[in-house]
Design a protein that fits this description.
By secondary structure, this protein is an alpha+beta fold. The chain is 38% helix and 27% strand. The chain starts with a strand and ends with a helix.
Length: 334
């Protein structure tokens, strides 16, 4: 087994440009500031960044976010399991980055002997992927009429847009959005750490839209390889008739194109089949349904990753963690 240094892992990822943003060493740096410890494992042409989080009594949870990377995973898993056992992991959670139903996903799943479906997901498995092929006019042509209209309207509403380092303003908008749409947000320190880890090489940046110097909309854009990622976004309750969210996304798409990206990942939407999404989005408002109403207009393709899988090392402790998670979700829903 090869346990790599951070620098060696970065070199391995450069040899596999298709890897996910969440397998970057920078993502490990980010998470290391919030309770996780990264380790980098390689076997042949396959590798994974494994994050470990401590539990009481020296136990840990292990997690591979949007990985592993490469191919030939049959030889990787024994090495990963060996590392997890040495670090006293109760279980390992894996959320691969391959799209469901593709040959790559089938090959990976075939290699995952002993894994079971997870009782919860960390990252949303379903997304909308927007193609950046062609010109901006081509992108507009692929969007629905309302989104196309709102983008053009936003460009006539005296808004200013640009990159920003104002993390405090971004966090204030996130808190406003979280309160309005009933979802949790990270701390200001987390978003500041995001820019610290990804901002050096312009892999991460804040795009901010304002009206008369008042921030109205912002998103944190990440770029890795040929894909741009919209992971975090927020908006004010004011001046919504100016359609600032549309200008923010339009700007992000153009930045991605200039950086050589061929696709823009709008990240999480409800984990439902597209037929269900399209027949219910006008009536559903909980969870990610609100954002689906917005994201669907950009003309992308609804895709789903393989999902989330667990490999259990301590069945009794795993059962206890699963029960505790179920009780927490019940309290949150009450």
């Amino acid at each position: 087994m090869a346990i790599l240094t951070k620098e060696q892992w970065q070199a391995f990822c450069l040899e596999h440009p298709e890897h996910s943003l969440l397998q970057n060493a920078e993502w490990g740096d980010l998470k290391s500031g919030f309770g996780w410890t990264p380790a980098y494992v390689q076997s042949g042409d396959a590798g994974a960044m494994v994050l470990f989080r401590s539990l009481p009594a020296g136990l840990k949870i292990a997690y591979i976010p949007r990985g592993p990377v490469g191919c030939g995973f049959e030889k990787l898993w024994p090495e990963v399991h060996s590392l997890c056992r040495k670090r006293h992991a109760v279980f390992l959670r894996v959320e691969p980055d391959f799209w469901q139903g593709t040959p790559e996903a089938d090959a990976l799943e075939y290699s995952m002997e002993g894994f079971i479906p997870s009782f919860a997901t960390v990252q949303p498995p379903r997304t909308i992927l927007v193609s950046l092929d062609g010109t901006p006019d081509d992108w507009l042509a692929r969007m629905n009429q309302k989104t196309r209209y709102n983008i053009r309207l936003s460009q006539k509403k005296d808004l200013t847009v640009g990159e920003s380092s104002d993390v405090a303003a971004f966090h204030r908008l996130m808190e406003t959005t979280g309160s309005r749409d009933a979802f949790g947000v990270h701390t200001e320190a987390y978003y500041r750490k995001c820019l610290e880890c990804f901002g050096k090489d312009k892999k991460g940046r804040i795009i901010l839209v304002s009206y008369q110097d008042k921030p109205l909309s912002a998103l944190m854009l990440f770029i890795e390889g040929k894909r741009g990622y919209y992971l975090y976004g927020a908006s004010s309750n004011e001046e919504r008739n100016r359609m600032p969210n549309y200008l923010t996304q339009w700007t992000a798409m153009n930045i991605c194109k200039e950086a050589g990206c061929t696709e823009y990942d709008l990240w999480g939407i409800p984990d439902e089949e597209e037929e269900t999404l399209e027949t219910q989005f006008l009536d559903r408002h909980e969870g990610l349904w609100q954002v689906y109403r917005f994201k669907r207009g950009f003309g992308g393709q609804v895709l789903r990753t393989m999902g989330s899988f667990d490999y259990v090392y301590s069945p009794l402790l795993y059962k206890g963690i699963k029960f505790a998670d179920s009780e927490r979700r019940k309290r949150s829903a009450a």
